[in-house]
Each structure stands twice: as structure tokens, then as C-alpha cells.
Write a structure and sequence with these properties.
Number of helices: 12
Radius of gyration: 20 Å
Helix content: 25-40%
Structural class: alpha/beta
Distance between the termini: 11 Å
Oligomer: single chain
Number of domains: 2
Shape: globular
Order of helices and strands: EEEHHEHEHEHHEHEHEHEHHEEHE
CATH class of the largest domain: Alpha Beta
CATH superfamily of the largest domain: Enolase-like C-terminal domain
Number of strands: 13
CATH architecture of the largest domain: Alpha-Beta Barrel
Strand order of the largest sheet: 4-5-6-7-8-9-10
């Protein structure tokens, strides 16, 4: 088996969240050649949230001898699984997408830069949920959030990326009780702790969503009593284990991409589609498309090859006309 890489950089107009100041996101497109087949995948990590460095992921991939190999790293296993799935579909001349559509929230990484005049246009696109990254300037962020509250057609998801303390969350919600009226859930309000999350839920009667280190934290005793929604990221998480846990515990699920390249977003969308039937009403609006948060690049500019901003209309995960001509170099 041969593995090739094509590095990319995605540019953000501002920092992506309260835990990272990095406006340039680096990753790699990957091409796997094996058994007379070609399949594509991606690699992009967030060390701020406990991921390995991208260089370490690529170094481990260099030692992989077979597309069927199992690694101790879930990220490596997912990269291989995506490439194998894509290669099979391309060999069969089939797309990985079907005609079903999963609704998505609209991600706002910096609410202080958000133009509330855009809400009418978003509503016309059948978007009903806004996801805001919070925690950098809570006073300014809350002020803009108040402006969006005039548009009653939207629900909010507010993500603190585990950067707040219990006291700060309590103070913020006590001072701004109007937030709860439009709130679908708070995501990672404080670092996961069953006791503290229980206090938030009992005091304010709100839904809480778990994202950061979800694979680890669901194993903690009584975690299901304080978690209403789990966020599953197909690039980094053990999807099968998490979806089964959610089904067993009757927990809602949101699939999200990795704030990564359009190819990575597309694979995440494929995985979400594959699990949508089994999850049924437990699957909420997802967060699969984040194209709009980055400055345009050739894949997002090639909208003729995309369906509803995510899916491409050729074989496998799509975009074969662009992937074929990437400047591939042997890993």
C-alpha cells in the first residue's frame, strides 16, 4: 500500500473558539493506493483539545502496511476506514451519498463579528438553529446574542469548549435568564464533572451537550443522568460505540464535522447518513457544513460539484476532478 499527502491550510477571519487563537488551520488530504484501488481521506487535528499533533498522525500512517490494519488510535482507524470506503465506492462507480438530507445548524465562531441582518436569509434556507462559540468576551457576546433574540424562529446552541467555571456559568445564567427561552442546549459549559453538570441542570432546567473527550466521559458512572446530547465527530470518535451508547441510554445525538476541509466534512456527512435511520428522532440537526467560516478555497469555490454545500455528485465521496490533480507527495 502507498499513501500520499497533499497539505492544505484553511484561513479563518478570527479565532475559531475560546480555547484556540489559531486563525490558520493545517491539515492534509490523503490518497491511498492498494489492491488496484484508490481511496481518499483527510487528516487534521486539534491538539488544543487533546488530539495528537498532525505530524505524529502522519508519522504513524507511514508505518501502516495494510488498509485493514487496526491501530490503537481511533483517528488512524477512522482515516483508514474512510479511505477504504471511498475506494470501494469509486471502484463500483457509485457515490457514497444518497438523496437524503440531514438538517444542519449554522455555526458562528465569533458572535461579535456576526451580522444579525443575515438571520432572515438563513431562515429562508430552512436553518432554524444557530450554534455560537462563546467564552472570549462574555459581555460583548451576550449583547449580540440579545439582538438575535428578536428573531424568534431560531433556537441556540452555545458552546463554551469547557473554558468556563461553575461559578461563571451560574452568574451568567442568573444575570441573563432570557437566554433559556431560546436555548436548545449548552455544550461543554464547564469541564465534564457529573456533580457540577448536575448542579447546572437542576438549577436552570436546561439541556447539556457533551463533546470534548466524549469517548472517555460516557464511561463515567451516572454520566447519562447529566448528559442530554452527545456530539459525535466521525473523524476522531468511535462512532459505532457512541451511537450504540446513545441508543441504549436514549440520549440525543448531533454529528459534526471537524471544522476541516470540505473532503472531511463530506466524509462526516456520509457517516451521519449511515446512522440516521437507526437513530431516528434521536438524531438532531447536525453541524456538518462549516464552509462559510473559512475564506474561500478551490473546493468550496467549485460549487457546481457540490450538493447543498456538502455532497459532490461523482463517485465515492466526490470531487474526483479536483483530488486527481492535487500535488501528491509520497508519505
Amino acid at each position: 500500500m502507498k499513501i500520499y499527502k497533499s497539505p492544505y491550510q484553511l484561513q479563518l477571519p478570527s479565532a475559531p473558539n475560546s480555547a484556540s487563537n489559531n486563525k490558520t488551520i493545517s491539515g492534509c488530504l490523503l490518497k491511498f493506493e492498494f489492491e488496484d484501488q484508490v481511496g481518499y481521506s483527510t487528516a487534521q487535528t486539534w491538539p488544543e483539545f487533546g488530539d495528537p499533533l498532525l505530524e505524529d498522525v502522519l508519522e504513524e500512517l507511514k508505518n501502516i502496511k495494510s488498509i485493514n490494519e487496526n491501530s490503537n488510535s481511533q483517528i488512524i482507524n477512522n482515516i483508514l476506514s474512510w479511505a477504504k470506503m471511498d475506494a470501494w465506492a469509486r471502484a463500483q462507480k457509485q457515490p457514497l451519498f444518497d438523496n437524503k438530507n440531514i438538517k444542519n445548524n449554522y455555526l458562528v465562531t465569533d458572535i461579535c463579528q456576526f451580522d444579525t441582518q443575515a438571520l432572515s436569509a438563513l431562515n429562508k434556507k430552512n436553518i432554524s438553529i444557530l450554534k455560537f462559540k462563546f467564552g472570549r468576551n462574555i459581555a460583548a457576546e451576550t449583547k449580540v446574542l440579545k439582538e438575535t433574540s428578536e428573531f424568534k424562529k431560531f433556537k441556540w446552541r452555545i458552546d463554551f469548549n469547557s473554558t468556563f467555571s461553575l461559578d461563571k456559568i451560574f452568574t451568567w445564567l442568573k444575570q441573563n435568564p432570557w437566554i433559556i427561552d431560546n436555548l436548545e442546549y449548552l455544550e461543554d459549559p464547564v469541564p465534564f464533572n457529573v456533580r457540577e453538570w448536575s448542579e447546572i441542570k437542576s438549577k436552570f432546567k436546561i439541556n447539556l451537550a457533551l463533546d470534548i473527550k466524549v469517548d472517555e466521559f460516557i464511561k463515567i458512572k451516572n454520566s447519562e443522568t447529566v448528559v442530554d446530547i452527545i456530539i459525535i465527530k466521525p473523524f476522531s470518535d468511535h462512532v459505532e460505540a457512541l451511537t450504540q451508547w446513545a441508543l441504549d441510554k436514549n440520549i440525543k445525538v448531533v454529528f459534526t464535522s471537524y471544522m476541516d476541509h470540505l473532503i472531511g466534512q463530506s466524509f462526516a456527512a456520509v457517516i451521519a447518513h449511515q446512522h440516521s435511520a437507526s437513530l431516528g428522532e434521536q438524531l438532531l440537526d447536525c453541524g456538518l457544513s462549516t464552509n462559510h467560516v473559512f475564506e474561500p478555497y478551490k473546493y468550496t469555490l467549485n460549487q457546481a460539484n457540490a450538493s447543498k454545500g456538502i455532497a459532490s455528485n461523482n463517485y465515492g465521496v466526490g470531487y474526483g476532478d479536483l483530488l486527481e490533480f492535487e500535488p501528491w507527495e509520497l508519505l
